[in-house]
Amino acid sequence: MDGHGVQPGNAGVGGIGGNAEGKYRALAYDTAVSTLLAVALYVVVKVSLDGFRQWRARISVLIVGSGPVGLTAALVAVRSGKVLKLTVLDERYRSALLCRPQQIALDPRSVKFLLGLGVDFDNMEGCWNNGHFFTRIGVFQEYLLSILEQKKQRVEVKVQLGTKFSEEYLRRIPHSSWPRVIVVADGSCGDSCSVLGISSDYSVESCHAYGANATIERLDQRQVPTPEIRAHSLYFDLSAYGVEALREHRNPTAKSGFHLKIYGTFRNRYMALVCPSSDTKMVRFLRHTSNSSIMRNIFYQSFNAYKTDIEPRLNDVTLHHMQCSRRLFEIQLSHRRISAAYIEGDNAAVIVEGEAARVLNFDTGFGVNLGMRGLESVGTFIYRAATAVDQNDILEALSAKMQHSRQVAETFKHTGLSESMYE
Ligand SMILES: Cc1cc2nc3c(=O)[nH]c(=O)nc-3n(C[C@H](O)[C@H](O)[C@H](O)COP(=O)(O)OP(=O)(O)OC[C@H]3O[C@@H](n4cnc5c(N)ncnc54)[C@H](O)[C@@H]3O)c2cc1C
User: Fold this and answer.
1) Exposed, middle or buried: residue 260 (CB in 10 Å: 0-12, 13-18, 19+)?
2) Does 294 fall in a domain?
3) Amino acid 399: pLDDT
4) How far is the C-alpha of 352 from the C-alpha of 198, rounded, in Å?
5) Which Gene3D superfamilies did the record assign (predicted)?
6) What is the structure's pLDDT at 249?
7) pLDDT of residue 357
8) 187 CB under 6 A from ligand 1?
């Protein structure tokens, strides 16, 4: 009985303990669930708020220089969806900007990049050859300006031609209206970086090749876009100058001989002659000769041998239309050591693009493409600058941009000449 008497008692005590434990368990469970819910809610709200903030984030961008690179950068900016106000300036007036006679050759990678930005090549005067699109620089700029005009409904686009970027220009911008991003694309002669206090130190690096350029200006010829002509493995008979050994020391790994490219319109014809660096007698002779008529003769004969059938030959009378390098020179790529910077007081990020960032001392007819390579990271940069939470985010974005810029120069040094000249 006792046992029975105790049992219920025990059972009673055991029941009360079990209940309390159950309650604690339930309480702990409830607390865990509500904490989890609160954390989940916090995460959802934070992610949504961040997403909303990122989605809403819009900045003001200033582009200095309306060359092909500056205008393409402007297109990247309006397409990024992160720009509220875009100002594009150039010190040249519209007529001077658009009458530039040089032809540009957009290679397949640049064509793909531009197609991604909505460029419609069917609506631009030019011609196709081997995946490249050839047009005049002014035609290209005019086309880009017209697209920017169409984007005015979605983004406040202001194109200020005939306006020089200078200290005075900067002083006139009210502090509250300073752009968050400045893209400097003022070409190889621009000095906008120094206006912004950015060092003009360049790294000059050899492309391990020698080259020479020639230009022929014939005002009586047509200005229509023309595909380029290439010739490879060229050797020149310099026996008249005492250089006999024409095919000495052929390097089986390098593409031997000279590579020639004739490009531009019939009115502004350009020639680029290049060979991988070597120490053959011919190269040494052409590097050091003081007789400028030798190089002139090489270009003269090369042009007449490889020009298209429909354009006139150069002859003794028309030869004075041609200007050329006096001798072979080492091809070098100069690129800015500082191609991205942060202006702390004004909270502005600056990036440098196109020939303002990197330039060759040799015209390959590839210049615009090199500029386009740099622009491939501008969309991401603008996105990161617009959605940056703090200065750290901006600095990281600038650092990534600068790294990409260095990589563009590095890649050109290794494969640029083979892409643009040797193949
Ligand atoms: C003779 C010649 C032939 C060429 N042929 C070819 C070719 O066949 N294929 C090819 O791909 N490339 C060719 N190029 C190269 C091509 O023209 C350049 O690569 C290209 O123009 C560079 O573009 P960019 O926008 O960087 O600079 P730019 O075209 O030089 O544009 C810079 C702009 O910035 C403006 N600017 C400068 N300072 C200021 C300032 N302070 N304020 C406001 N605006 C300013 C200038 O007025 C200019 O309009 C050739 C170049 C030359 C000279």
Assistant:
1) buried
2) yes
3) 98
4) 10
5) FAD/NAD(P)-binding domain
6) 52
7) 98
8) yes
Q: Do β-strands 103-106 and 132-136 pair in parallel, antiparallel, or remain unpaired?
A: antiparallel
Question: Residue 358 is which amino acid?
Answer: R
Q: Which residues of the chain have pLDDT under 70?
A: 1-18, 244-255
Of 423, 418, 411, nearest in space to 358 by CA? 411
Helix (H, G, I), strand (E, B) or coil at 156: strand
Contacts of 162 (CB under 8 A, 6+ apart): 90, 91, 92, 93, 94
pLDDT of residue 176: 87
Hey, which of 87, 91, 158, 353 would you mutate to test ligand 1's pocket, going by the most ligand atoms within 8 Å of its Cβ? 91
Residue 53: what pLDDT? Answer: 72
The token pair at 396 is: 């990281």
Is 27 domain-assigned? no
349 and 320 together in one domain? no
Distance in Å, CA 365 to ligand 1 centroid: 12
What per-residue confidence (pLDDT) applies to 78? 96
Is residue 35 situated within a structural domain? no
**Distance from Cα 308 to the centre of ligand 1, integer Å:** 27
64: CATH: 3.50.50.60
DSSP labels, 20-77: HHHHHHHHHHHHHHHHHHHHHHHHHHHHHHHHHHHHH--EEEEEE--SHHHHHHHHHH
Q: What is the largest CA-CA distance in the chain?
A: 137
Query: Of 273, 305, 332, which marks where a domain is finished?
Result: 332
Domain, as residue range, for 191: 59-201+338-422
Question: What is the pTM (predicted TM-score) of this model?
Answer: 0.88
pLDDT for position 255: 52
Q: Specify which residues 216 forms β-bridges with.
A: 269, 322
The pLDDT of residue 251:
53
Q: What is the amino acid identity at position 355? A: E
Instruction: Please tell me whether residues 219 and 112 are part of one structural domain.
Output: no
Round the average pLDDT of the chain to a whole number and report it: 91
State if residue 416 touches ligand 1 by the CB under 6 angstroms criterion.
Answer: no
User: Is the beta carbon of 66 within 6 A of some atom in ligand 1?
Assistant: yes
Residues 77 and 192 in one domain: yes
